[in-house]
Amino acid sequence: MIEALRNAWRLPDVRNKLLITGLILVIYQFVAHVPVVGVDPAALERLLDPNTAGSGLIEVLNLLSGGAVANFSILANGVYPYITASIIFQLLVPIVPQLQAIQREPGGQEKIQRYTYYVTIPMAAIQAFGQIQIFNTLLVGTPGEAGTAVSTQIIPGFGTDFLLTISVLATMTAGTMFAVWLGELITEQGIGNGISIIIFAGIVARAPFNFGSLVTQSLRPAFDVGFFIVIVLASVAVMIYIQEGVRRIPVQYGKRVRGRKQYGGASSYIPIRVNPVGMIPLIFSQAVITFPAVLVSFFPDGSVKESITATFGNQQGGLYWTSFFVLTVVFTFFYSEVMIGNQNLAENLQRNGGFIPGIRPGKRTQEYIVQVTRRVTLVGAVFLGIVAVVPGLVDAFNSVLFPGESVSAGVNAATVLPGASLIIVVGVVIDFMRQLEAQLVMRNYEGFMR
Hints:
Elements: H1 2-10, H2 12-31, H3 41-47, H4 55-64, H5 80-92, H6 97-104, H7 108-140, H8 162-189, H9 194-217, H10 221-244, E1 246-253, E2 255-258, E3 261-264, E4 267-273, H11 280-288, H12 291-296, H13 303-314, H14 318-343, H15 345-351, E5 354-355, H16 363-388, H17 390-401, H18 419-442
Antiparallel strand pairs: 1-4, 1-5, 2-3
Helix pairs in contact: 2-8, 5-7, 5-11, 6-7, 7-8, 8-9, 9-10, 9-18, 10-18, 11-14, 14-16
């Protein structure tokens, strides 16, 4: 493996791709420390207190922004609006005939991508407004130090000062588009999926701080640190096993005789992965699960608003974890269906003279592939759903081991690297290593993923 990495570094074009990827991540982290105009540092410090109501929501937003929320920088929206816009179009394309026609025509995918960028702009402005309103709501019930004036606004004057409001919304929207552009730049000029790598960098950057909080704030540090190590090792082992699991559908190609030569007759297989969609459903469900708390910020105070903010803002309770599990499973099935549909496997097989033994070519082959995919995906979907709710399971486990202790009294060992974050890290690393492997193999070097 070390020799393979040396070979990768010796290749000028691969080295340039690695340097470009690293440089863009450094630029992102620098910009993530540029605060939005008018932010009150004291209010931001109180908001980031782990004991603050809604700290779970803030951590999720911080995750999706690559750590920018901790500084309330111009990148505080992160890539979340782009993810939301992508979800919207992936939901609309299969059911809107006009969008389906656009996608099938030459250059159609690029046109859909352009529409996604257009929708990202208003989504970014809406999220910026909603995010600020949520933070203001959380600050109302957050006490300050004795003898000091307490601000209940993260940006004093936002909403009343027209020029300040427009400046903040425009700046944060531009920050989102800049983050998306950096991600696309990594995809085109670097190695790996740029959006995923930006989220990965944010998770890794926050991990040492979260581990320090676990050690210093835990009621039982030795137990929680040991539990954290066990969770990480077990999770990584199972994740790699599931990620690499494949169901092979046999394919036979018919023989064709032309003159004295015989063509075809070979056998192959279609690899159907247990988890064909990687960490995408977790990113989507992580983004969507924050939407109720964002949405209610636009409504007046009341019992419904407080209940939704307490559930989806604090990331606690059976409703939150059940919703997270269901969303992850649904997105896994949905995304795998979209992927299989876009590949047109049955049509491609028939065009190339291939068939699945015992299955009629054409529509019956497509139905068979979808049926097998759904069965295999069920395992991957349930696995991703369980991974997503690991912190909730750890809370339940702690409540059994330490009865009478409230969920918020101790630090959860699974929140240092939550299941969703961990599978994103594992998925991004595996994808990155695969792409690096492909670069080496393409240049006749021996790879390292055997």
